[in-house]
Amino acid sequence: MDYTPLRISTVKPLKSLTFDLYIFFKEQYLCYVKSGDQLTEEKYTKLKVQKVAKFFITESDEINYQNFLDRLLSETLSSSQVTTEEKVQMVEGAATSAVERMQNNPGSESAYRMTETAAKSLRQVIKSNPEALKKIFGKKVEKNEELIKHSLNVCALSVKLAEILKCTEQELDDLGTAALIHDIAIPQMNKNDLPLFNKPRKLLTNDDKRVYYLHTKDAITMLQDKPYVNKAILDLVANHEEVLSGSGPNKKKKLSKLEEILSMVNNYDKRTITNKTTPMQTLKDMMIDEMGNYNLDLLNEFKKVLHSEGLLD
């Protein structure tokens, strides 16, 4: 039987479950709560204290979980009784589960649909809660979770910038989904090449770049024959490492507005991770290093967003 991981924050206590819920304990999957039952507050708290981050469901229950999560996200985000912190935790859990599922099974339509929902929810919580973006960026990255946290950061900041630039709803949906899945091919890289993700760009040799940039082509190979992935999202994923000087893997010099936003935000967040610099220093470095790679007007708009959202404090 195949099991799919999901984040504990996407399952709330005292809600009747429509799927069997498992935990992984002593090298085996144990049914923790049966479909139709509720997860008690006591059990939920106990797992959080024990730092259990993931539950599991069987592959056959994926659609039941997806419907459950859609309802829970809708209830949570529309409730005035739920704090911004709780809303952020819920959408981060949904987005993290979605990205993990796409990394593990990029051919799964249900995983892709979950990513679309997570991207919309992330956008909704940022739009409705002024302090949400700062809370997302203020989270400490767990060990071995830099890649997923990077995907969430890029999604949140890209859609915020695109919204200010008056992009359409469809464009925002496409950008959010593409941002969450843009790096899904990285975990499939050769084990010896994986450290390239954390290597500062200025230290990458030409051979490093050639190997690392293969993740853009590999992602397209995973997604291109899927009828539910539209061309706009494929183009965004394919071109998220492109810059206007033409030095990206596809040597593309003309970028759409969404492609340029995604590339720039990806570049910014990646620099923060790999160079271990403060957000303010990262921005200063970008304003110098990336002249000619992005439109100055866009860089300045980006700077304004980082300032207004308190991300440079």
Describe this structure in words.
With 313 residues, the protein is mostly helical. It folds into two domains: 1-59, no CATH class; 83-308, Hypothetical protein af1432 (Orthogonal Bundle). The protein is 56% helix and 7% strand. It contains twelve helices and four strands, in the order E-E-E-H-E-H-H-H-H-H-H-H-H-H-H-H. The protein has helices at residues 41-49, 62-78, 84-104, 109-128, 132-138, 146-164, 169-181, 206-223, 231-238, 257-275, 279-289, 296-308; strands at 3-7, 21-25, 28-33, 54-58. The strands form two sheets. A two-stranded antiparallel sheet has the order 1-4. Strand 2 (21-25) and strand 3 (28-33) form a beta hairpin. The mean pLDDT is 94.
CATH architectural type of the largest domain: Orthogonal Bundle
How many E strands? 4
Oligomer: single chain
Radius of gyration, whole Å: 19 Å
What is the CATH fold-level name of the largest domain? Answer: Hypothetical protein af1432
Taken in chain order, the helices and strands follow as: EEEHEHHHHHHHHHHH
Relevant CATH superfamily of the largest domain: Hypothetical protein af1432
